[in-house]
From TrEMBL:
Keywords assigned by UniProt, alphabetized: Membrane, Transmembrane, Transmembrane helix
Topology of the protein relative to the lipid bilayer: Multi-pass membrane protein
Keyword set includes Cell division: no
Record field: transmembrane: 7-24, 79-104, 116-136, 148-166, 186-204
GO cellular component terms, semicolon-separated: Golgi apparatus; membrane
Keyword Transmembrane: yes
Subcellular location: Membrane
GO biological process: retrograde vesicle-mediated transport, Golgi to endoplasmic reticulum
Origin superkingdom: Eukaryota
Pfam families from the UniProt entry: DUF1751
Protein name: Uncharacterized protein
Length: 385
């Protein structure tokens, strides 16, 4: 095995900081118990009466690793905006977070490189935590809320941002669960994860901050990958971006090698339709999101914020990726372009249940068939070249 550098460092940081946070919380808890017993003995009170004032370890937090929005002095301890996203308080959450961060990070680092992946993690975590801090500050200022905000301690922002990035690369693959009983398309995994946290936050109040982190990190990571990520994106074009820059273009209509220069004004990010915001949502939800996003896009084009020529209709599957091919047999199934059959959510379900769970309408199926044929033509052209 050749483990990735940055993904390994991030995984070790999650485990180390989580264990350090756990140790400091319980050290403080036992110290408070000892102090409460001593004060009870000095005042001739019952020891049990003094121990009732000691808070539960779950109610404690480490101010040098985590923060409470609007209450913690983030200006004097800015590193907490980063370390808070590397801490899990439960053993199950730590296990799932460790596996998700390592394997998803392994794939993304192999595709982007260590520097780009590290930059992506730092930007998404800092932006998410800063947005939560300012959101609670604005909420308290506008609505005069007196309740204490929850403590920000979760790796949800890292996991959600990695899921959005993986969707960008292998959107047409499927996750196989329970021995091929359930298949979930990779493009819908961020939405499913968010809905799970939303429902859980309605039942368990402690999960509310995780739901907020997932919501903010989803949009932060999508905006960064869509508009701001630097570097050439091979998904956008099969041709090298070359422009002809010559003063005497009329005198020499035939471009010589000295006249050819790389175009440095290429748009950043992934502007293809396969990474549009509506593609993250299934069924009618995606249609509603598409209507709203199209209206926002038209508004941005009219006011010169965005250029319509930067957004292309090209879509490409991750053909022949060795990093995906190594895990196809166990976790991911093949995309339709590679010959997958019966890609319904529950292949063994009845016809009525399949219609109820169907995420693609008849029109979408025809569109997907046309896109698949277009991909095959482009793949053939690449092989001929």
């Amino acid at each position: 095995m050749n483990p990735p550098k940055v993904a390994s460092i991030v995984t070790v940081s999650v485990v180390s900081l989580s264990l350090l946070n756990f140790s400091l919380k319980y050290y403080t808890y036992f110290s408070l118990i000892v102090a409460a017993h001593r004060s009870a003995d000095d005042n001739d009170n019952i020891a049990a009466g003094g121990s009732e004032e000691v808070p539960h370890p779950h109610d404690l937090y480490v101010p040098f690793l985590t923060f409470i929005p609007t209450r913690s002095p983030v200006a004097t301890r800015p590193w907490v905006l980063l370390t808070a996203s590397f801490i899990e308080e439960s053993f199950i959450g730590l296990t799932l977070a460790t596996a998700s961060v390592f394997y998803l990070g392994w794939y993304l680092e192999a595709k982007w490189g260590p520097k780009a992946f590290l930059k992506f993690i730092v930007i998404t975590t800092l932006s998410t935590n800063m947005a939560l801090y300012f959101w609670y500050a604005a909420k308290n200022a506008l609505f005069h809320v007196e309740s204490v905000p929850p403590v920000v301690t979760s790796t949800t922002s890292i996991v959600m941002s990695c899921l959005v990035a993986v969707k960008q690369r292998i959107a047409n693959h499927y996750v196989i669960l329970y021995k091929n009983l359930i298949r979930i398309k990779v493009t819908f995994i961020p939405f499913c994860w968010y809905m799970f946290l939303l429902v859980a936050s309605l039942v368990i109040s402690d999960w509310h901050i995780m739901h907020c982190e997932a919501f903010v990190s989803f949009f932060v990571s999508w905006v960064y990958l869509r508009f701001l990520k630097e570097g050439a994106n091979e998904r956008q074009s099969y041709l090298i971006p070359i422009s002809i820059k010559s003063k005497n273009l009329e005198a020499s209509p035939v471009a010589s090698p000295t006249n050819l220069k790389f175009d440095e004004n290429q748009p950043k990010g992934d502007r293809s339709n396969s990474f549009a915001l509506c593609t993250f949502f299934p069924g009618y939800i995606g249609c509603v999101v598409k209507m709203v996003s199209n209206a926002s896009f038209d508004f941005s084009v009219r006011h010169g914020i965005l250029n319509a020529k930067d957004f292309i209709g090209h879509d490409e599957d991750d053909m022949g990726d060795p990093h995906v091919g190594g895990i196809n047999s166990k976790l991911f199934s093949l995309s339709r372009l590679k010959g997958a059959e019966n890609v319904a959510l529950m292949p063994n379900a009845g016809s009525k249940l399949k219609n109820f769970l169907g995420l693609v309408s008849k029109d979408d199926k025809n569109e997907n068939i046309n896109m698949t044929m277009d991909k095959r033509r482009k793949l053939a052209i690449r092989q001929l070249e």
